[in-house]
Amino acid sequence: MANAVIVLDNGAHTAKVGLAHQDEPRVIPNCIMKAKSERRRAFIGSQIEECRDTSALFYILAFQRGYLLNWDTQKTVWDYIFSKDGIGCTLDNRNIVITEPQMNFQSVQEAMLEMLFEEYRVAGLYKTTAADLAAFNYVADSEERTTMQSLNCIIIDVGYSFTHIVPFVLGRRVQEAIRRIDVGGKALTNHMKELISYRHLNMMDESHVVNQIKEDVCFVAEDFKDTMRVHQSEAKRKQVAIDYVLPDFTTVKRGYVRIPGHPREDEEQQQMVPLCNERFTVPELLFNPSDIGIPQVGIPEAVADALQACPWQAHRELLLNILIVGGSSQFPGFLPRLKRDLRALVPDDLEVSLICPEDPVRYAWYGGREIATSPNFDEFLYTRDDYEEFGVHALQHR
Predict the structure, then answer these.
(1) Which CATH number is 185-243+271-284 given?
(2) Residue 71: exposure state from Cβ atoms within 10 A (0-12, 13-18, ≥19)
(3) What b/e sequence results for 161-191 when a residue is b if at least 16 CB atoms lie within 10 Å of its CB, and e otherwise?
């Protein structure tokens, strides 16, 4: 396995990376972080685990608004990933499967090719999107189903910067049916920061901690209006209201939900944030972006709209094969709510079936692994010879 293929699902929040013969990828933060406590040092990728105090963590992201624009940061992170601290091997003379955002800018694509061939000396590359890899993995997974059926599917990718709805008909992406919503994990974390800062404590600089709070306590309300009646009775309020113990980075390394009647040691001295309707109003943005003034529809309406742009013969199978990937799809209650809302928007005689894999974050990477180990992988490759002969422009025609 001297030159096994590297598979890199290069997301805006985390990079999922590993060799094609490995069982699972490493998930590495795709950014550089600086902490107040250690000013001299920048933490790259997984090095953040070595930071003792992650309060007021400052992020330098490679991606701006969902597109790879900060190349110095990306190169620093990639240098770390392809070193002995990262996956333990370099890109030199290897083939790579790498993802890019939907509808990526031509200039960004060219810059990426240039960097991979010139700086990292890759032998060849296969450039694709996370949704394509997820669809490929889904079809490979579903050998037991009739293959024709799973060739028609809708991928909902709830990412960091955007949520994309990408329909596939007969295994091909329907370009004119792709829909994008400008809400992802980043917008949810930022909204949570604003709510907590406005109501309780100023946490505007605490992206890292607030992101953990979001992951620990948020859920999607199946019936939003009904759940909003939480303040009408004490009993209802008790079901939702919690106290979240904030980390102090000496005794409490990571925040947690306080369990009434079972205090941990010196819990009384710790700082706490009381949370109630923030728990479900934050993920609600995925269904109603207009709540924070984004003039766009939510995921269910976007799926219904994407469906209308697909051939009607495929509608039944598309709705039976809706695959949900991406980190922000992991909120409890997300699937039942999406199914309920979708059910109301599509024809009654069509069944709606949502599939959420066990690991929605790494799912696309596994698709990349399937491609990299497939017998005809070499046919997809854009090699260094192609690059030296045709430059960056020929890749568009492939």
Answers:
(1) 3.90.640.10
(2) middle
(3) bbbbbbbbbeeebbeebbbbbebbbbbbbbb
For residue 131 the two structure tokens come to 């949704």
What are the residue ranges spanned by the domains of the chain? 6-129+361-397, 132-183+295-355, 185-243+271-284
Q: What is the pLDDT along the chain (398 residues), one digit of tens a residue?
A: 457 899 999 999 999 999 988 899 999 989 999 888 787 888 898 888 888 888 888 888 999 888 999 999 999 999 999 888 888 888 888 899 999 999 899 889 889 998 999 999 999 899 999 999 999 898 887 765 555 556 889 999 999 999 999 999 988 889 999 999 999 999 999 999 999 999 998 989 888 899 999 999 999 999 999 998 888 888 888 889 999 999 888 888 888 998 888 888 777 888 889 999 999 999 999 999 999 899 999 999 999 999 999 998 999 999 999 999 998 999 999 999 999 999 999 999 999 999 889 999 999 999 999 999 888 888 888 888 888 888 777 666 55
Residue 68: partners with Cβ closer than 8 Å, 6 or more residues away: 10, 62, 74, 100, 101, 108, 112
Domain 132-183+295-355: which topology? Nucleotidyltransferase; domain 5 (3.30.420)
Helices (H), 178-321: 185-199, 207-217, 224-227, 234-240, 278-281, 299-308, 315-320
Nearest-CA neighbor of 366 among 22, 2, 124, 88?
Answer: 22
Domains 6-129+361-397 and 132-183+295-355 share a fold: yes
Residue 233's alpha-carbon distances to 199, 222, 239, 278, in angstroms, are 21, 19, 10, 17
Give CA–CA dist 34/199, Å, rounded. Answer: 27
**Nearest CA among 187, 207, 200, 195 for reference residue 54:** 207
How many angstroms separate the CA atoms of 330 and 327, rounded? 6
**CB-based contacts of 338, cutoff 8 Å, min separation 6:** 287, 299, 300, 324, 354
Q: What CATH class has 6-129+361-397?
A: alpha beta
pTM: 0.90
Rounded to 5 degrees, what angle do the CA atoms 298, 304, 307 make?
135
Pairing of β 67-68 and β 63-64? antiparallel
Nearest Cα to Cα of residue 360 among 40, 133, 109: 133
